[in-house]
Amino acid sequence: MSFKNLKNIASEALSKAKDVAASIQKSDEPVGGVPVAVTRKVSVIVFNPIVKSEGGRKLSEVLNWSKPDELTQGYIADVREVSHGYANYSVVERIESDSFPVKKDGFAYTVDEFLKYLRSNTGFHKPDEVDYHRIVEQFDIIAKINRGAIDEVWLFAFPYAGFYESIMAGPGAFWCNAPPLENTDSANRRFVIMGYNYERQVGQMLENLGHRAESIMDHVYRHRGEADNLWKRFARYDQTHPGQAEVGVMHFAPNSTKDYEWGNKTKVKSRYRTWENFPNLDGEAIEVDHTYWGGGEIRAHHKWWFSLLPHITGSAGGLSYNWWKYIVDPNEVN
Ligand SMILES: [Zn+2]
Question: How far is the CA of 15 from the centre of ligand 1 (A)?
Answer without folding.
Answer: 58
